[in-house]
Design brief:
The complex is a heterodimer of chains A (about 280) and B (about 140). Chain A has about 280 residues and is mainly α. Chain A is built from 16 helices and no strands. With about 140 residues, chain B is mainly alpha-helical. The chains are: A mainly alpha (about 280), B mainly alpha (about 140). The structure holds fe (ii) ion (2 copies). One fe (ii) ion binds next to helix 7 of chain A.
């Protein structure tokens, strides 16, 4: 089993077939590492790629990031949301393509999870809801990459989900020996994502194991639960995952704040995705 | 009309706006009734959402659907006490929301029935006549 798992890992991470990151990203990363690089320079580099620019601007202007329709330039976006978020959003354009190719509804599921994660962060008074949003957006990236890299194993997993009524996570473990949380870890390291986003992605099924950001992981777990509850998109199976009671504790949430969250999320979920989902 | 994600498009819905390929070529015009094949073609073409005819945001319908899906969504957690508590809390929450919305609708209806008298002061008899057939209580 371990040998098989190692083999699967190698094939999932096979760089030559791994979705390619936009070349702009390397330039942006290089600039970000220079202490004297200005927002202006970085914005300029991104703006050479028009398709990428319009995608990023469209994303940041959705209500998810809290400035609906008010961010008119990349420079403004970087100032408001920070380099890390913009860089992660550039990577998320790859996620968009990968998800659309691999599983119908996974992108909507991810957008919904992103919205809910940010909404939770705002509700509990976090200062960085945009980072929660990106963690939510990328939380199931491992599923998409796995389905693209190993289509045969992907079909086996879907078959198990349908015939044995297993949650997607368990079906992945049965076939691969690991699940998308592990794949998220590899991808996060491979693409050098910020730690806060990586921990959200890696530990959304087990928030208490997150070493630095159990709050982000807990928010993504609850957000994943909410999107599934409202039937928004498709996350691989039709059921909700278990919410760890300690997640609510970490987030400082009780029944009252949970109801408040339901109020605000329920009305937004579908309209936001319909408007900004592509 | 309202915009819905492509994943929620269903056969029988009527397009309120034309759907174009990214090249600009028309895939289906306004007024076209969606079929399974068409929806499939749109999904394959990467269309993310469509604008369809009909009331915007049938939120009661959505809430009702969530309420009804609860037992199925929670089926893997029947022996998890915390999840069952969560399930029951959600059931009460959605029931309460639906009841609130029904009460609000009833209040709106009552206000509407009262309205003809207010706006048609010079021909108040017309207003009363118009509202009587289905209300019954005005007379
Ligand atoms: Fe997951
Ligand atoms: Fe998910």
């Amino acid at each position: 089993m371990t040998d098989l798992s190692t083999d699967f890992k190698g094939r999932i991470l096979a760089v030559e077939s791994l979705p390619a990151l936009p070349s702009t990203l390397y330039e942006v990363t290089r600039l970000m590492e220079q202490p004297d690089a200005s927002t202006e320079q970085i914005a300029k580099v991104i703006s050479y790629d028009q398709a990428l620019t319009s995608r990023v601007l469209r994303m940041v202007n959705s209500p998810i990031y809290g400035f609906p329709g008010r961010i008119s330039s990349l420079q403004h976006a970087i100032m408001l949301l920070g380099f890390n978020v913009i860089r992660s959003l550039i990577i998320s354009t790859v996620a968009f393509d990968a998800m659309n190719k691999s599983m119908r509804g996974l992108w909507e599921h991810s957008m919904g999870c992103s919205l809910c994660s940010a909404e939770i962060a705002r509700l509990i008074g976090k200062e960085n809801p945009e980072e929660f949003a990106v963690a939510g957006l990328l939380h199931d990236l491992g599923k998409a990459v796995f389905m693209l890299q190993l289509p045969d194993a992907g079909r086996e997993v879907s078959w198990l989900v349908e015939t044995k009524d297993l949650p997607f996570f368990d079906a992945e473990s049965a076939i691969l020996g690991f699940s998308h949380d592990r794949i998220n870890k590899w991808l996060g390291e491979h693409w050098n994502l910020p730690l806060i986003i990586r921990e959200g992605m890696i530990y959304h099924h087990d928030p208490m194991s997150a070493q630095f950001y159990p709050d982000v992981a807990a928010a993504v777990q609850l957000a994943d639960f909410l999107v599934r509850l409202f039937g928004c998109g498709y996350g691989g199976d039709e059921s909700v995952g278990a919410v760890d009671p300690r997640s609510l504790k970490v987030l400082g949430m009780n029944q009252k704040s949970l109801e408040k969250l339901l109020d605000s999320v329920g009305t937004q979920l579908f309209s936001v995705i319909a408007q900004y989902g592509n | 009309m309202r915009r819905i994600p492509m994943t929620q498009a269903e056969p029988g819905m009527t397009l309120a706006e034309a759907v174009n390929y990214s090249t600009g070529m028309i895939l289906a015009g306004a007024g076209v009734v969606l079929t399974e094949t068409m929806i499939d073609r749109m999904l394959k073409a990467g269309i993310g959402s469509v604008v369809i005819e009909g009331e915007s945001g049938d939120s009661d319908g959505e809430l009702q659907a969530v309420l009804e899906s609860l037992p199925n969504l929670f089926r893997h957690h029947r022996s998890n006490a915390f999840m069952m508590t969560l399930h029951n809390m959600l059931r009460s929450y959605f029931r309460m929301k639906l009841a609130e919305s029904a009460a609000a609708a009833a209040a709106r209806k009552a206000a509407q029935e009262a309205a003809p008298d207010a706006e048609g002061q010079e021909n108040g008899t017309n207003g009363a006549a118009a509202s009587s057939p289905d209300s019954g209580e005005g007379a």
